């Protein structure tokens, strides 16, 4: 595999990343099955060459972009981020990627746009999970425009300076480190700039449990479990739980995005 | 002699004790796997889920004993106590893994039991299994009398239903597997409903 040559940054230098094996063998990617090991086992047949992403909606330059066109002019940086799943486990991942803001500026966001909506590929026959109505396919996610433009929000193309494995959302995925992992949509084929808050898959599936914002918040429990603590993957059988941090440890950077909002109501 | 009778005769020679030995070793096997990397990168959840699922599967075997005899004549009743007690052992280990390795924090354990319906239901199933497990011996049958003992052991039906619902409630999205378990449990319970007596038409 060719190294991506991601530029080192200061992000997460104090964090101890999980191993390649941890990050690539324990995934939620329901298109390839609901078990944590299913994506690694079942995603090998997904072909990510000649990948195109449809960019549409309220943009100046809509169209079907090849991955090369999207990546042209982007600086691939290493970003070591905490990753907190809504299921109360966590990892630290050394992503390689570029800021979503750079992509949005490249295609030109029209002033009416207020949200960004994303869609994951649906490839029947390759993604065995999409034969079952686990979720309403395609998988959809969304961000408010200011969240999307935030410098912490990246489009990842790799991890450990290697191209993203399929199970981690190759060839292009979102990473929003202060939100629960399911917001960081994988294998993106469509990005739309829209005026209304977009529909999101987990919210459609169970609105009471999964809100649009889904910011990591130890004070707001999931209806079925506490979010106050998390199990750090990789610690073995006897690892102690650790405290979950407000906005997953990115409070200083992102709290101002939600000034005046009731975070329990806007979960 | 029918085939079923021949099978039953052969089964009489099979002892029940290996079921206890194998059952006792199941959690040890998972512990060994968990300590040596055989359960993947999240051994706590893997162990918790495996023990819960094995227990539910075994409970289904226990519930199948009577319908199997009714339909085929083959009787596994001799092994039912061992299967039931091993089920209780696996559920106890499942609970212990959740308490000690997963949640760990006492205040959070109580909050979870009271506030989270799927955990409340799982705990209820466990509590209902305790009197059944304690009285799974010949002395209890004598002391309680067969009728009362049998009624007490019908709590197993509730445990199986609650266990299956517990599984359905804990998954995310619409998943088939737990619904299949619930369907099997309900079918096995439905086979016990009193059937209408056929009357000769005059």
TrEMBL record, chain B:
Membrane topology, record value: Multi-pass membrane protein
GO CC term, one of those recorded: plasma membrane
Cofactor annotation comment: Binds 1 FMN per subunit. Binds 1 heme b (iron(II)-protoporphyrin IX) group per subunit.
Main location: membrane
Pfam families: Ferric_reduct
GO MF entries: electron transfer activity; FMN binding; heme binding; metal ion binding; oxidoreductase activity, acting on diphenols and related substances as donors
Source taxon at top rank: Bacteria
Summary of the function given for this chain in its UniProt record: Part of the MsrPQ system that repairs oxidized periplasmic proteins containing methionine sulfoxide residues (Met-O), using respiratory chain electrons. Thus protects these proteins from oxidative-stress damage caused by reactive species of oxygen and chlorine generated by the host defense mechanisms. MsrPQ is essential for the maintenance of envelope integrity under bleach stress, rescuing a wide series of structurally unrelated periplasmic proteins from methionine oxidation.
PANTHER family noted in UniProt: PROTEIN-METHIONINE-SULFOXIDE REDUCTASE HEME-BINDING SUBUNIT MSRQ
Protein name: Protein-methionine-sulfoxide reductase heme-binding subunit MsrQ
Gene symbol of the encoding locus: msrQ
């Amino acid at each position: 595999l060719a190294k991506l040559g991601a530029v080192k940054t200061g992000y997460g230098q104090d964090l101890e990343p999980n191993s390649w094996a941890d990050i690539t063998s324990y995934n939620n990617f329901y298109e390839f099955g609901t078990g944590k090991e299913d994506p690694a086992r079942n995603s090998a047949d997904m072909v990510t060459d000649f990948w195109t992403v449809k960019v549409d909606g309220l943009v100046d330059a809509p169209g079907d972009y090849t991955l090369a066109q999207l990546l042209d002019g982007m600086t691939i940086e290493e970003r070591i981020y905490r990753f907190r799943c809504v299921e109360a486990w966590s990892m630290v991942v050394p992503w390689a990627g570029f800021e979503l803001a750079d992509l949005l500026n490249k295609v030109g966001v029209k002033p009416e746009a207020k949200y960004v909506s994303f869609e994951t590929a649906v490839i029947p026959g390759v993604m065995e999970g999409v034969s079952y109505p686990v979720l309403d396919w395609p998988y959809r996610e969304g961000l408010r425009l200011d969240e999307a433009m935030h410098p912490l929000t990246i489009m990842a193309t790799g991890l450990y300076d290697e191209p993203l494995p399929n199970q981690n959302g190759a060839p292009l995925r979102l990473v929003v480190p202060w939100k629960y992992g399911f917001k960081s949509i994988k294998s993106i084929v469509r990005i739309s700039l829209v005026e209304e808050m977009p529909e999101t898959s987990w919210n459609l599936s169970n609105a009471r449990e999964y809100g649009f914002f889904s910011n990591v918040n130890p004070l707001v429990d999931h209806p079925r479990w506490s979010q106050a603590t998390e199990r750090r993957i990789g610690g073995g059988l006897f690892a102690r739980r650790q405290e979950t941090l407000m906005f997953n440890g990115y409070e200083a950077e992102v709290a101002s995005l939600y000034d005046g909002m009731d975070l329990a109501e806007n979960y | 002699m029918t085939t079923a009778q021949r099978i039953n005769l052969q089964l009489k020679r099979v002892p029940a004790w290996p079921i206890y030995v194998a059952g006792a070793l199941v959690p040890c096997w998972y512990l060994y796997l968990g300590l040596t990397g055989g359960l993947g990168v999240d051994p706590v959840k893997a162990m918790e889920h495996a023990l819960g699922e094995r227990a539910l599967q075994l409970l289904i075997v226990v519930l199948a004993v009577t319908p199997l005899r009714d339909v085929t004549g083959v009787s596994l009743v001799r092994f039912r106590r061992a299967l039931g007690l091993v089920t209780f052992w696996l559920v106890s280990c499942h609970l212990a893994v959740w308490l000690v390795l997963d949640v760990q924090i006492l205040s959070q354990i109580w909050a979870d039991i009271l506030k989270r319906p799927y955990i409340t239901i799982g705990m209820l199933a466990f509590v209902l299994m305790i009197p059944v497990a304690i009285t799974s011996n010949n002395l209890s049958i004598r002391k309680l009398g067969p009728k009362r003992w049998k009624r007490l052991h019908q709590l197993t039906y509730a445990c199986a239903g609650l266990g299956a619902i517990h599984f359905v409630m804990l998954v995310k999205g619409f998943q088939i597997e737990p619904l299949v378990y619930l369907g099997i449990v309900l079918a096995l319970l439905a086979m016990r409903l009193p059937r209408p007596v056929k009357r000769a038409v005059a």
